[in-house]
Amino acid sequence: MDKSQANVQLDLKGLSCPMPVVKTKKALDSMQAEQILFVEVTDKGSKADIPAMLKRTGNELLSAEEKDNVFIFLIKKK
Amino acid sequence: MAEEKKKKRMAIIASKGTLDMAYPPLILASTAAAMDVEVGIFFTLYGVDIVNKKKYHSLKVAPIANPAMPSPVPFPNILGVLPGMTPMATMMMKGMIKKINWPTIPELLDTCIEAGVRMIACTPTLEMTGVKNEDLVNGVEVAGAAEFLDFALDADVSLFV
Q1: Cβ(B160)–Cβ(B15) under 8 Å?
Q2: Among A37-41, B37-41, B69-73, the least confident range
Q3: B9-57+105-160: which CATH topology?
Q4: What is the mean pLDDT of residues B29-42?
Q5: For chain A, what is the total number of helices (H) and then of strands (E)?
Q6: Is A56 on the interface with B (CB under 8 A)?
Q7: Which of A23, A25, B43, B108 could cross-link B26 (Cys pair, CB 3.0–4.6 Å)?
């Protein structure tokens, strides 16, 4: 699965903690169950922060990768 | 939510009104709310400035007695008493905040309120400082220690900032 197959794409590059987590959750809250969210972040803390938020909120992390200092997450809304 | 699970709860006391110390309670609150945690912040003493519409745009930070404050040049701390040092330190910190794209305090407060964070301003502080209910940001409740403790006694995390 890649960016083009996601229902919602979010570019959060350049934002610092807490905004990547806050904005990712806000996007998830506006989506339907089973939809896919694609997120790009440059904040280094987000590598751990976004999975922690997903774990606590029951949303599913489909994949996480790092490319040229950008963290890319694919998330399935519960 | 299919199964009704009891939410985790976090209670924060925000007691400081400087620009630097206004961030930690609001960052933790907005993040916890994003993690489906029920959050309440009790603003007391100088912390009330964070939710005072007349002041929250212009919170300051002072270099005096704060040797941890980063400085572009070596700087004896005692020089912090000189006129203009607090505005200068505040300007510098606002520059650092902008560099990392942090929201302003009013923006971060809006984020918290939008996420359902409960905000309580301490009544004796309001009386002492003459701050009126209409000076407070919309959505801020007014109550005393017992109301906050009623919320905090059932909290999983309690922080004093």
Answers
A1: yes
A2: B69-73
A3: Hypothetical Protein Ychn; Chain: A, (3.40.1260)
A4: 97
A5: 2, 4
A6: yes
A7: B108
